[in-house]
Write a structure and sequence with these properties.
alpha+beta; 285 residues; three-stranded mixed sheet; binds FE2/S2 (inorganic) cluster
Length: 285
């Protein structure tokens, strides 16, 4: 399980500035609000001064996503748009007293929502830092080369595992890991350093009985209610060490976003609350 700071726990249990501002002056959305990690940020901005008078968020994500979004709104309230445009994911993580490495992507999501909101306010397209076409590197999480390179550069990342922690790329089927490694090597070659590819080692801290009970309990508490709210459900078919085989039921069956639901909701929650090496696979009849 993750080791959260007291501030993360506090902001998760009592999030500040949740909800939506009516007729906002700026809106920033990242991810998918229907399936997976997603964040919608709405801002009230005083036209004459450019000061952010109010900020609210809605998110569909884990404890760190809620805490990061909450921290973001606290940080930017009272800032001018100009000041807010310099807020980074590190500022969000620092405000929370740090985030587990595996959860840094939540602070990145906050930064991206803020950038989207500022672009929306200014009426300009989101800032482009790379010339040329962006390419999807990780199909499981729709992460582009631009996003990966930016995360490498701004957070001094040197391993595929670190890139996964900050962007989610590589956290699903793993097919994109060689391409991520290539981006790392190309980037650090240009910078005169060498990337080190550390393979993730599976961790088995629980006994089998404890693991099965923890998986069932996490599904009942963290996953099933979200699926049921949309008319779906989930059934655990089998558990084999770090592999969890599940069947999706109801409206989840045949939903085009099934893959995202499995990875971003089911697998991510099981990794967060049970074991970070868990891989979820769907069983179809
Ligand atoms: S393509 Fe990146 S994890 Fe599957």
């Amino acid at each position: 399980m993750w080791d959260y700071s007291d501030k993360v726990k506090e902001f998760f249990k009592n999030p500040h500035n949740t909800g939506v501002i009516e007729n906002p002056d700026a809106v920033g959305e990242v991810g998918s609000i229907i399936c997976g990690d997603a964040l919608r940020l709405t801002l009230r901005i005083e036209k004459s001064t450019g000061i952010i008078k109010d900020a609210k968020f809605q998110t569909f994500g884990c404890a760190s996503a809620i805490a990061s979004s909450s921290a973001l709104t606290e940080i930017i309230k009272g800032m001018t748009i100009e000041q807010a445009s310099r807020v980074t994911n590190k500022d969000i993580a620092d405000y929370l007293g740090g985030l587990p490495e595996e959860k840094m992507h939540c602070s990145v999501m906050g930064m991206e929502a803020l950038e989207a909101a500022i672009s929306n306010y200014r009426g300009t397209p989101a800032k482009k830092e790379m010339v040329g076409e962006e390419k999807i590197i990780c199909k499981c999480f729709s992460v582009t080369d631009k996003k990966i390179i930016r995360a490498i550069k701004e957070n001094n990342l040197h391993t595929v595992e670190e890139v996964t922690n900050y962007t989610k790329a590589g956290g699903g089927c793993g097919k994109c890991k060689p391409e991520i490694e290539k981006l790392l090597n190309e980037f650090w070659k240009k910078e005169g350093s060498k990337a080190v590819y550390k393979k993730e080692l599976p961790k088995f801290k629980l006994t089998n009985l404890q693991r099965i009970a923890a998986i069932q309990e996490t599904i009942d508490r963290e996953i099933r209610p979200s699926l049921k709210a949309d008319g779906g459900n989930i059934e655990v078919v089998d558990i084999d060490r770090n592999k969890v085989y599940v069947k999706l039921l109801g409206t989840c069956l045949g939903c085009p976003a099934t893959g995202v639901t499995l990875k971003v909701l089911v697998e991510s929650k099981l990794r967060e609350f049970v074991d970070e090496s868990i891989v979820v696979e769907e069983v179809k009849e």
